């Protein structure tokens, strides 16, 4: 059934569509649910009877029976061949031309030998088929369970594990199940076969056989001990691999920040150090493997030498049949006991470690959802009732996140939660979702919840699939949601509309677009309660007003809504306001009730109210024009009446795959990467062949005569000892070289990934990159070296065997040549298809890891929308696709092996019958030699050919790693042309006709930008979300190379090294990124600042008290992605980094979007004081954060709309900035206009700015109007 596929593989490169569907009983869902059921029973039983649940017991229960039956297949047939061989040699020893009865018996023995060979071939491959399929099924079921568990982890459990560990479990640990099933049966079959063979040996050569058995007995415990050491090294290696993959995950996720902060070298050092420790453990394992392999090849020489020496010293004379029967029997026992048995122990000890790691993960606590959701029938007036609720994220470390909180939210009510950074606003939503464990108090939720997270979560796929999230498309409702979430205009800008693909982590969208897609997903869901965690921060005022009016108070008006926000201008329109501080409710009530409160936070509201009363009302005509403009822009054309185009299945661009043979360049790179030991290897090779020849030849040719010569005995002893020593040395040298190659290639790949432009990470999902760093590197570290060593040792052995056999009977070369040609033809036929399947297997594994990584990032969203089942189905679909490739890879290698073995069986049959037909003139010794070697050679020959094919298949992993080592680099980090030492003392930036592209084939996102930012100038950049404001930052930092020229202090940025450029500028990014390390390392990775500096910086960003409460203070290790800080606090850490760097240029990209107005005010004050002498570029949606800008730069669709002082721009009633200000609401827009006027006067007439400020404070706006009336004459005003 595989022939059509192999023929297809000859014609063209195989694609996913060419693969056969996975069998129904091998589907991920079927297998996973079955194993999960058994595991649940085990956990239940264990908790009842108070013992620890055992995953191994569950595996035996599920798969033990069918696996045990497979093991009985091949046990007995192995033993028959040596005895039949002895009978044929015996016929030649006692040969008499007239003895017809003996001749008939010889033919019977030859026939029996050929039948047993064919029988063994068929049964052996049936055995392999069953055990390998069992291994695959265990692995698939285990992956399903791990993913299912990851979706249900409680917040505390997430703190105990990392993405790196889960990825490692899913990409490396589970692979041990594929390996162990292949070897496990040898643990019982080995000793059992040995006992039977010892009986046969006793019958052949008497007590002398015990000498050889004693040699095996001495070697077995040593190899068993080696196996145990493997387990120890494996568990140590696994922890380091977890750590390395976790760092890689953080590097890929935060690559933009790492590049802008110039932190590549620090991360490089971090990964190199972990990798160094990992490699030292892998090297120890490899040395043990080398000794194991070498002892297998040396043992045959040693055992035969000891046995025959003892036999002859006891005064016995050996016959040819005794020699060859003994050698054949020892050959059988040798493979089982000195190769497969220790290998089984090695794999078992490694698998035990993996089972323990998976079991510990599966026993982590899951999120509890008890009493949270009440059935629909019980829905009444109140949707949420919370009474005296106290919650802790981690009771052992923290103060309570929420303390004594009592809230009631009615079914049509809008409840708004406000409060400073770290007040517990997001914690409140987490408690309602059931994510934050409840300590005391009651919490009742009536109805279906949905949630829009503060950090928008999007997954790779189309915009439409992100919004629908598995739900059915209702065109009318979908249109309403798009309009309510202000997405229509954005979708018109994309060539594919809502079928535009979103890259990994939403790379193709702006921050505001991601936030709106995230919100649209929640709004599209038909829920009863909407929890919205600060969705307005990432958007500009105009879009924010639209979202509030049309979505939160429009489309959702009849629902219960809890809105966390820092946008105080909307508070007048809400039903209830809740002010939180340090996890406690400071005050709650309606807007008017809060106005009369004395609370500090509320003073902001009161000020807002006063400004409202002071300000003159805006012109109603202008307002109506404005609202008309807004409505037009958001619904420029409506698709309500025309049907939406059906969503074609679009996926992220295919992962690249090589074609044809693995090129010689890949082999050369691999073998020369680790060492220049090629010359040494050649010498060792030659010695191996020579020694093999010298040891084999005297040992088998006319043995009885040699053994009486003591001198030759000593020579034999010397040669045997030399063969053993050189065997060990050769193995160690090669293992050392190959592991070092893996280390070098990994380091080169990591370095290339750090040097590649940011656009690479936008088009390649995180799972695709992690796949190469986990699975492919793991193949190079441990699987490829052992396969290669196995192949080349067998290759040398075969050369030795043919040389010795041909020297005795040259005619044996005649069938060897055609056999070799047939083997090579079959190999090329098999390899062309299997290589493609192996490459497909590698690329179909990436989506499994991408899906896991993406799901872990959006856990709270997934759980809130009850989408776990949908995501499990998606995961199972990815797994099934991988299983298709994996199963076909196993089956094609069975196809190849079966054909090779069948040809070998024919060869043995022809040899056996041929010898009897040509019986005249043949000596028993020669017959024994030819027959023994026919059997040995055939076994070895086909295994060598298979291993050579396996090496080529595994080289696809090297190929994939080498592909990443050759990634396109961004500009050089350092160039010969360094900028002058006093460069960037001013901070003047000039754009000269700059165009900026993210994709060389795509349209420019910034078009013909020409502008100058003067030294020490404060420039505000504003524009609607999706106006490519952040692209201006990318152009300055050269995250992609801009066209045109950007001058900084007269130096063209494209002519200097990237590090020279980037380290002279500071950035506070839109998405705050923290790494899993201490607070100190997150602030100052290169240890350039004193503790005093660090504390001062933390104090200036209002974080000193927070860090002082952490156990370990500056040395406290942050959780993955800094998740033990709120999003606002993470942005403050980024601000502290900028303060420490003291650069002349500071770029602030939406840095205070997630903080409350009071903290924002304090931060703005800090920035004004600290960066007085710096050029500050601020991208903001909150116009009050750029109130004191010298000039404002308005962007629309990547082009400059306006660029001047804000007061000047506001004189133009048709201008973009004026329209934005009007969007803020009457009070705030009037307040902003006043502030802009004051700042304008302060800049124009600095000598009088203090007087003007005083006048403004005391006399309100009348004075300014007077100033304008006097023709801007300052003296008249004074």
Automatic annotation (TrEMBL):
Catalysed conversion reaction: glycochenodeoxycholate(in) + glutathione(in) + ATP + H2O = glycochenodeoxycholate(out) + glutathione(out) + ADP + phosphate + H(+); taurocholate(in) + glutathione(in) + ATP + H2O = taurocholate(out) + glutathione(out) + ADP + phosphate + H(+); prostaglandin E1(in) + ATP + H2O = prostaglandin E1(out) + ADP + phosphate + H(+); ATP + H2O + xenobioticSide 1 = ADP + phosphate + xenobioticSide 2
Key words of the record: ATP-binding, Cell membrane, Lipid transport, Membrane, Nucleotide-binding, Translocase, Transmembrane, Transmembrane helix, Transport
Gene Ontology, cellular component aspect: apical plasma membrane; basolateral plasma membrane
Primary subcellular site in the record, as a coarse category: membrane
Pfam families (alphabetical): ABC_membrane, ABC_tran
Domain ABC transmembrane type-1: 68-333, 671-953
Single annotated GO MF: ATP binding
Listed EC numbers: 7.6.2.2, 7.6.2.3
This protein's name: Multidrug resistance-associated protein 4
Native species: Astatotilapia calliptera
Gene that encodes the chain: ABCC4
């Amino acid at each position: 059934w595989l022939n059509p596929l192999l023929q297809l593989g000859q014609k063209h490169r195989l694609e996913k569509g060419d693969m056969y569907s996975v069998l129904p009983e091998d589907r991920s869902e079927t297998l996973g649910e079955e194993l999960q059921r058994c595991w649940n029973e085990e956990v239940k039983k264990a908790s009842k009877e108070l013992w620890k649940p055992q995953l191994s017991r569950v595996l035996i229960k599920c798969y033990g029976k069918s696996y045990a039956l497979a093991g009985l297949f091949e046990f007995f047939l192995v033993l028959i061949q040596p005895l039949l061989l002895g009978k044929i040699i015996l016929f030649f020893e006692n040969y008499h031309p007239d003895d017809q009865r003996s001749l008939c018996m010889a033919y019977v023995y030859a026939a029996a030998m050929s039948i047993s060979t064919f029988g063994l071939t068929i049964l052996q491959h049936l055995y392999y088929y069953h055990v390998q399929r069992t291994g695959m099924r265990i692995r698939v079921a285990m992956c399903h369970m791990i993913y299912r568990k990851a979706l249900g982890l409680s917040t505390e459990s997430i703190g105990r594990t990392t993405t790196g560990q889960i990825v490692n479990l899913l990409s490396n640990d589970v692979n041990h199940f594929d390996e162990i099933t292949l070897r496990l049966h040898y643990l019982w079959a080995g000793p059992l076969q040995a006992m039977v063979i010892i009986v046969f040996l006793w019958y052949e050569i008497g007590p002398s056989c015990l000498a050889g058995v004693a040699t095996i007995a001495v070697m077995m415990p040593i190899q068993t001990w080696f196996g145990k050491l493997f387990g120890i090294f494996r568990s140590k290696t696994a922890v380091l691999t977890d750590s390395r993959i976790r760092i890689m995950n953080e590097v890929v996720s935060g690559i933009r920040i790492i590049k802008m902060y110039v932190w590549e070298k620090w991360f490089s050092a971090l990964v190199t150090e972990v990798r160094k420790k990992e490699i030292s453990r892998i090297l120890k394992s490899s040395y043990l493997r080398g000794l194991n392999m070498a002892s297998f090849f040396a043992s045959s020489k040693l055992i035969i030498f000891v046995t025959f020496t003892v036999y002859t010293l006891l005064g016995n004379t050996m016959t040819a049949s005794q020699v060859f029967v003994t050698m054949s029997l020892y050959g059988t026992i040798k493979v089982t006991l000195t190769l497969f048995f220790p290998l089984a122990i090695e794999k078992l000890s490694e698998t035990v470690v993996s089972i323990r790691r998976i079991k510990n993960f599966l026993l982590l606590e899951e999120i509890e959802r008890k009493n949270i959701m009440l059935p629909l029938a019980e829905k009444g007036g109140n949707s949420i009732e919370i009474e005296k609720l106290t919650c802790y994220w981690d009771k052992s470390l923290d103060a309570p996140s929420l303390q004594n909180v009592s809230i009631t939210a009615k079914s049509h009510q809008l409840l708004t939660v406000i409060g400073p950074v770290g007040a517990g606003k997001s914690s409140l939503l987490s408690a309602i979702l059931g994510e934050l464990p409840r300590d005391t108090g009651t919490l009742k939720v009536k109805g279906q919840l949905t949630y829009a997270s503060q950090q928008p979560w999007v997954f790779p796929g189309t915009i439409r699939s992100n919004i629908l999230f598995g739900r059915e498309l209702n065109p009318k409702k979908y249109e309403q949601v798009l309009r309510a979430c202000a997405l229509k205009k954005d979708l018109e800008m994309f060539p594919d509309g809502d079928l535009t693909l979103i890259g990994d982590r939403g790379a193709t969208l702006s921050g505001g677009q991601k936030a709106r897609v995230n919100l649209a997903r929640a709004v599209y869901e038909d829920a009863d309660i909407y929890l919205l965690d600060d969705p307005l921060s990432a958007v500009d005022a105009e879009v924010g007003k639209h979202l509030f009016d049309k979505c939160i108070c429009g489309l959702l008006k009849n629902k219960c809504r809890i809105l966390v926000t820092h946008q105080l201008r909307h508070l007048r329109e809400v039903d209830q306001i809740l002010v939180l501080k340090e996890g406690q409710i400071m005050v709650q009530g309606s807007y008017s009730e809060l106005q009369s409160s004395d609370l500090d936070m509320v003073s902001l509201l009161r000020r807002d109210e006063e400004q409202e009363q002071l300000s003159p009302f805006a012109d109603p005509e202008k307002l109506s024009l404005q609202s008309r403009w807004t409505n037009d822009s958001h619904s420029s054309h409506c698709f309500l009446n025309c049907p939406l185009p059906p969503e074609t299945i679009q996926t992220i661009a295919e992962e690249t795959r090589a074609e044809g043979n693995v090129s010689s360049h890949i082999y050369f790179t691999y073998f020369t990467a680790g060492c220049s030991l090629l010359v040494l290897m050649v010498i060792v090779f030659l010695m191996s062949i020579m020694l093999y020849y010298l040891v084999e030849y005297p040992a088998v040719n006319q043995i009885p005569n040699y053994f009486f010569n003591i001198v030759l005995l000593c020579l034999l002893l010397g040669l045997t000892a030399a063969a053993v020593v050189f065997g060990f040395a050769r193995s160690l040298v090669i293992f050392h070289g190959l592991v070092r190659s893996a280390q070098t290639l990994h380091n080169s790949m990591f370095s290339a990934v750090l040097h590649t432009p940011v656009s690479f990470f936008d088009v390649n999902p995180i799972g695709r990159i992690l796949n190469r760093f986990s699975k492919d590197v793991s193949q190079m570290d441990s699987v490829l070296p052992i396969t290669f060593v196995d192949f080349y040792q067998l290759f040398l052995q075969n050369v030795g065997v043919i040389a010795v056999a041909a020297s005795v009977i040259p005619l044996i070369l005649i069938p060897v040549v055609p056999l070799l040609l047939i083997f090579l033809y079959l190999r090329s036929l098999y390899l062309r298809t299997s290589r493609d399947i192996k490459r497909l297997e590698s690329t179909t594994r990436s989506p499994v890891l991408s899906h896991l990584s993406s799901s872990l990032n959006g856990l709270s969203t997934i759980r809130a929308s009850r989408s776990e089942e949908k995501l499990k189905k998606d995961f199972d679909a990815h797994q099934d696709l991988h299983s298709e490739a994996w199963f076909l890879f196993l089956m094609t290698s069975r196809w190849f092996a079966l054909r090779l073995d069948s040809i070998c069986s024919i060869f043995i049959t022809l040899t056996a019958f041929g010898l009897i037909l040509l019986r005249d003139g043949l000596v028993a010794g020669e017959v024994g030699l030819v027959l023994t070697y026919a059997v040995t050679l055939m076994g070895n020959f086909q295994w060598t050919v298979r291993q050579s094919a396996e090496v080529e298949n595994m080289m696809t992993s090297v190929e994939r790693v080498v592909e990443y080592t050759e990634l396109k680099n961004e500009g050089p980090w350092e160039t010969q042309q360094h900028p002058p030492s006093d460069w960037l003392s001013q901070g003047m930036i000039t754009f000269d006709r700059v165009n900026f592209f993210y994709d060389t084939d795509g349209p420019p996102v910034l078009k013909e930008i020409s502008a100058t930012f003067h030294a020490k100038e404060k420039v505000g950049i504003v524009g609607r979300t999706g106006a490519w404001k952040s692209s201006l930052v990318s152009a300055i930092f050269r995250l992609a190379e801009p066209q045109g020229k950007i001058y900084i202090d007269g130096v063209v940025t494209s002519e200097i090294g990237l590090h020279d450029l980037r380290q002279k500028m500071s950035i506070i990014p839109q998405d705050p990124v923290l790494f899993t390390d201490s607070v100190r390392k997150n602030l100052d990775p290169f240890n350039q600042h004193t503790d005093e500096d660090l504390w001062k910086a933390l104090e200036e960003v209002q974080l000193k008290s927070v860090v002082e409460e952490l156990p370990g203070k500056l040395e406290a290790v942050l959780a993955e992605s800094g998740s033990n800080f709120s999003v606002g606090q993470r942005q403050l850490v980024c601000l502290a980094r900028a303060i420490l760097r003291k650069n002349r240029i500071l770029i602030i990209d939406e840095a205070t979007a997630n903080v409350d107005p009071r903290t924002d005010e304090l931060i703005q004050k800090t920035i004004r004081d600290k960066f007085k002498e710096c050029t500050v570029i601020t991208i903001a949606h909150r116009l009050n954060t750029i109130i004191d800008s010298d000039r404002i730069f308005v962007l629309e669709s990547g082009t400059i709309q306006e660029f001047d002082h804000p007061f000047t721009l506001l004189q133009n009633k048709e201008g973009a900035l004026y329209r934005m200000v009007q969007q803020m609401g009457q009070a705030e827009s009037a307040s902003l206009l006043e502030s802009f006027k004051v700042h304008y006067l302060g800049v124009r007439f600095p000598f009088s700015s203090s007087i003007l400020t005083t006048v403004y404070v005391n006399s309100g706006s009348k004075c300014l109007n007077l100033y304008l009336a006097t023709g801007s004459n300052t003296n008249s005003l004074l």
